[in-house]
Design goal:
The chain is 7% helix and 37% strand. The chain has 534 residues and is mainly beta. It binds copper (II) ion.
């Protein structure tokens, strides 16, 4: 069992001993802005700021536009919604009082959220006004290869050439339940908390870091019923929350080192585009769709009052029933759909990160062990106000959410193993660097396979993301997976030496897809493989 090392940050317990306490959080934040040097030897952010002086912003919501002429074709007769998105440069106040140049969907960081509906297709015209190539991946989506947002040369949106019109690509999202093409649509596989982000070839790390990421929230009849019955909180109390880290130059611009192939870390912790914001809440249950949107940082989350999280979902999907977790570990790209109950909370509660990580290798110590005593860094300050509300949402431990249709062992037609390892300062799968023209696995459409995902070692962490469909974790290091990981995942985190056995179906769509490490610098440095469905 690995154990946490104190990374040099004072723990909440240490602060209490010093009489500062969690409420003296300005001091904590001042320390944060002068965090210990990184293992990469490059300077930390030189800007100091007082945390919890800016409110947590809500991402805006994309609004449909009038239908336009498109090559998108759908097999459903439902009328699509049309959107246009301009990828362009913008300014954001990430650190209080500091203007930072970003690249954003519609110039916004984080990008606006899509609010979509199962059964209603979306046509999204992505117009690239940036001077880099882009590709927009719908993460947790079940989409045709040409609209999945893959890093293949013919699928990229070219950079804008000055004086010329910007290039665009229409992404066609059918939003049909997996299995629809064979007359067996399974609404239990409908995604709920998805996101979209850049997937440009070899440049995803920079593009996402500059701001190209946002939520894709999808509803369906079952989700509506959970809200109408007051089981889940009303949408007014449903908060998308993307956690990221960024590093800054003295002039407020983002600092990124493209030669950092181990995984680039920031020292300013950012929630919905704001460094350490506050959020005013009523004494009631709030739902948070927590997304780890960092390039290479993993978060180990707890609440400062030690209240549990009520876990509703993992990655894109609701769990069969709500469970409690005192702490939540999130690898890059993973999501936790949770309820935090503030009814009996003190007036101030912090969402804290207790992982210590100073390099792209991964967090120090045993981040999966909730009993380990570790330092805490506040990410969001909740200011809790008013009396406990009556008639709050009823969701509690064991509340039924979305039934699960398991992938059965008798569906499996093939077993493949993928080992993720380091080589020559870059990253390989099964001893090979990614080549978009090489098919590393050819699977038969309409079948299911068993994939063994194996961490090749060296102390590195790799969150493995598989496109196209959810996968079902059967065994993790030979044992049943943790309950929150036992149903549907699209990203499975492999710590040093870990091995996961997953089942996955390949339905509805043929052609090229991809699987890769979601430490984005590992991904850009070739830890990816192509699989074709035929
Ligand atoms: Cu990796």
């Amino acid at each position: 069992m690995r154990s946490y090392k104190n990374g040099g940050i004072l723990s909440r317990r240490d602060l209490c001993k010093l009489g500062i306490g969690v409420a003296g959080a300005a001091a904590v934040g001042k320390m944060l802005a002068t965090r210990p040097a990184f293992a990469d030897g490059l300077p930390p952010t030189p800007i100091r700021f007082t945390p919890f002086t800016r409110a947590l912003p809500m991402p805006s919501v994309h609004q449909p536009v009038a239908p336009f002429s498109t090559d998108c074709k759908f097999t459903t007769t439902a009328t699509p919604n049309f959107y246009t998105v301009h990828m362009r440069k913008g300014l954001a106040e990430i650190i209080p009082g500091v203007q930072t140049g970003i690249w954003g969907y519609n110039g916004q960081y984080p990008g606006p959220s899509f609010s979509s509906r199962s059964g209603t297709p979306d046509v999204v015209r992505q117009i690239n006004e940036l001077d880099v190539e882009t590709s927009i991946h719908f993460h947790s989506g079940h989409n045709p290869s040409a609209s999945d947002g893959l890093p293949y040369a013919d699928l990229l949106i070219p950079a804008q050439v000055p004086g010329r019109p910007a290039s665009f690509r229409d992404y066609c999202y059918p939003h049909q339940s997996p299995g629809f093409s064979t007359g067996e649509p399974d609404p239990n596989d409908n995604e709920t908390t998805a996101w979209y982000h850049d997937h440009g070839t070899d440049i995803t790390g920079l593009n996402v870091y500059q701001g190209l990421a946002g939520f894709f929230l999808v509803t369906d009849d079952l989700h509506d019923r959970l809200i109408a019955s007051r089981t889940l909180p009303d949408p007014a109390f449903d908060v998308p929350l993307v956690l990221q880290d960024r590093r800054f130059n003295a002039d407020g611009s983002l600092f990124y080192n493209p030669f950092e192939h181990d995984g680039f870390l920031g020292d300013v912790f950012v929630a919905n585009g704001k460094a350490q914001p506050y959020f005013r809440v009523q004494r009631r249950k709030y739902r948070f769709r927590i997304l780890n949107g960092a390039n290479a940082r993993m978060w180990f989350l707890r609440l400062s009052n030690d209240a549990p999280f009520l876990r509703l979902g993992t990655d894109g999907w609701l769990l069969p029933a709500a469970i409690t977790q005192n702490r939540i570990f999130l690898g890059m790209a993973e999501r936790a759909d949770v309820v935090i109950d503030f009814r009996n909370a003190p007036n101030t509660v912090f969402l804290e990160n207790i992982a210590v990580q100073d390099s792209g290798r991964g967090p120090a110590g045993d981040s999966q062990n909730p009993d380990t005593v570790v330092p805490g860094t506040p990410l969001v300050k909740f200011i809790v106000e008013g009396p406990a509300v009556a008639n709050d949402a009823t969701v509690t431990v064991g509340t039924l959410l979305r039934p699960n249709t398991p992938i059965e062992a008798n569906e499996i037609v093939a077993t493949r193993q993928f080992e993720f390892n380091r080589s020559e300062g870059a990253w390989q799968v099964n001893g090979r660097f990614f080549d978009e023209n090489r098919v590393d696995a050819k699977v038969r459409k309409g079948t299911a396979e068993r994939w063994i995902l194996k961490n090749g070692g060296g102390g590195w962490w790799h969150p493995i993301h598989i496109h196209l469909e959810a996968h079902q974790v059967q065994r993790f290091n030979g044992a049943p997976p943790a309950p929150q990981n036992a149903f549907k995942k699209d990203t499975t985190l492999l710590g040093p030496g870990d091995e996961a056995e997953v089942f996955m179906r390949f339905r509805d769509f043929g052609d090229r897809f991809a699987a890769h490490c979601h430490n984005i610098e590992h991904e850009d440095m070739r830890m990816m493989f192509r699989f074709d469905v035929g």
